[in-house]
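Assemble and predict.
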Amino acid sequence: AVSPGVLPLCRQPPAWGRAARRSSGLSLAPCRAFSNNKILVELDESSGVATMKFKSPPVNSLSLDFLTEFCISLEKLENDRACRGVVITSNVPNIFSSGLDITEMYGKSTEHYAEFWRAVQEMWLRVYGSNMVTIAAINGSSPAGGCLVALSCDYRIMVENPKFSIGLNEAQLGIVAPFWFKDTFVNIVGHRVAERSLQLGSLHPAPEAHKTGLVDELVPEEKLQERAAAVMAQWLALPDHARQLTKSMMRRAVLDRLVAHREEDIQNFTTFISKESIQKSLRMYMEMLKKKKH
Amino acid sequence: AVSPGVLPLCRQPPAWGRAARRSSGLSLAPCRAFSNNKILVELDESSGVATMKFKSPPVNSLSLDFLTEFCISLEKLENDRACRGVVITSNVPNIFSSGLDITEMYGKSTEHYAEFWRAVQEMWLRVYGSNMVTIAAINGSSPAGGCLVALSCDYRIMVENPKFSIGLNEAQLGIVAPFWFKDTFVNIVGHRVAERSLQLGSLHPAPEAHKTGLVDELVPEEKLQERAAAVMAQWLALPDHARQLTKSMMRRAVLDRLVAHREEDIQNFTTFISKESIQKSLRMYMEMLKKKKH
Amino acid sequence: AVSPGVLPLCRQPPAWGRAARRSSGLSLAPCRAFSNNKILVELDESSGVATMKFKSPPVNSLSLDFLTEFCISLEKLENDRACRGVVITSNVPNIFSSGLDITEMYGKSTEHYAEFWRAVQEMWLRVYGSNMVTIAAINGSSPAGGCLVALSCDYRIMVENPKFSIGLNEAQLGIVAPFWFKDTFVNIVGHRVAERSLQLGSLHPAPEAHKTGLVDELVPEEKLQERAAAVMAQWLALPDHARQLTKSMMRRAVLDRLVAHREEDIQNFTTFISKESIQKSLRMYMEMLKKKKH
């Protein structure tokens, strides 16, 4: 996907290098081994468009394993000349992604929290900074980190079902969205909508999400993939080089901000999540989720 | 209102300390003495919601005395564990607040201008940086500094009467809104609406104010307090700690900018307002207001 | 147009001085010689409003000569006490301006590219930083640099003909809009609309341009000049001094950014445009335009 001479949007040699990746818990095992695990990746070489389908039931939660596979799959596509765009969607009914896996944030070691958070950062840096055209085909609910995945794409199409909702609802759980979640959100919906939505931890039903600009369009479920392909074709009609440089110009400030404060952000996360009060909140939340199931 | 471990949004020890406050003209007299003077404060301990009613006829103008009482009342609520939110409204028919008291800016000493301006800054730092949920229930017109008070809250509900208008109309008087008035405005309506509205010194009738996003919703006058209570309950449903940290994340950059340039901003104001041409403009404006009354 | 004591919005003594202008290729020949060449300038001294009509058929492209004349005409009006506002419109049917003249960017010397780019920058600094009220009366299509001229004004009125389109479509040509084109655009339509529109190189038909906020209003062609005059009267009702300072407060950050990086921006442009691949793209584009004509 990278034309010669076009650097990835996030130039940061150590973080993107093999050594840094190893130390961050991402190993470079062959891609095929991962591809049929939690994410199904199909590349149509004739159109240059890949589809990534999240298939990690029950709710496509972003565990450390999922994030690792996601990053490796993205990197593989990014480096594949035959691939110019990727559609991200879900293979699980009614859910796009439920967001960060709470079990990774509860009752673990500080080292584990740090490793997990680095993988969350890595995922965002790769999606938001991708040189490929990225389209989120949102076929289910998408709270918190699931919403972040969608926000980091170039374009968002959501199934018009009002039972599906999307938003950065961290405040509802007693936690705070990191500044780079916020920056990504503000870039899309503006400061005022973001301020209110983040403080209230709002989950916006699809029609409201469309009205506020959180998603770009709504379609009936049976039209979703067809529409994603049509939008992709429209974006791929542009010369890659000019489009990539333009995207970088729009996003670099926000990407650079995390890159500059990455270790500090990991430190903040591990300190915050290790607090007794926060661990207690998470335990209560998990218990509530368990009861809901029964 | 401040949970243990949650710092006020504006951490700036000297400026918030007793000494700084004394030198800025705000004395720490007992609150009760002020509460029944220019602002009526009622705290409902069962809901944790206070109501501040401006009752400084004829137009609730923001005089030095008014601002002093306003800041002390806010500080008292901020430090009261029983209080989590405040509704700001007017007890004077047809006017929310007419804004800064022009008599404080005309024919006085440089020292007086400086003291007055510091009090205006202090008021904004306290409202925009409050840890409490702040809702403006705008039951009358609200030009200039009156608009700033509303803009600094978390949510704005305005009576739908098109005779009531709101806006930063400083340019109409030949003066310029300070950068932090502008920053607050841009955070709500975006750069373009702010640029046009500030250059034209627009006063937006309630329906237009709603359309541009300057206020969040319109209600009939008799429903105003009921609706404010309902919105407050919605905001108070969130855990204070997460909501406060989120609010701080959204507002800190703009708050810090004034804190960093506070003395310079006072200097700019006193120099500007002392100019013969500006003093003349204000005199003509006051004479026009007097004639209007007769 | 400049009241005593009011500095032009862009204070940068060397760049605005006579010497700097000479070295940038702009000579200070008497204005009248230019005024009847590519731009028709009429000043109505009773209203204080000038009209600039682009009359450089076939498409009012922004050549070095055109830009030089444009800057000198603007400077003359800026320094004329009798002039407080300017309406910018086209004298050529169906086109406002086609943008930068591609022939200035193809097959020329590095020195020529640098001289040309400095003139483009100078034009933007003068229009976006003007102390006058500037209204674009857009009576035809306005791609790329033509769009930039309109975006740099205080207000945009466009003929409601859906055959007329406007946008920063650089990406379509394989090139990238400079950061200050982008900054100007973001200030008007916000980050999200700008990101999408710039990446797709969108040319928005008039109704869509209005809906996205790229233009402020649409009128029938026969009402355009009348409406421009009415809007101008509304803006001129404000005291010049307060309006100018407010405009400066809103625009200075973006203006200062180019001023601080001006030479670097010229260097980037000349390097980019000199690339063989870009020269090839431009040649193909020019050949396509030629074929279209026949």
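The radius of gyration of chain C is 18 Å.
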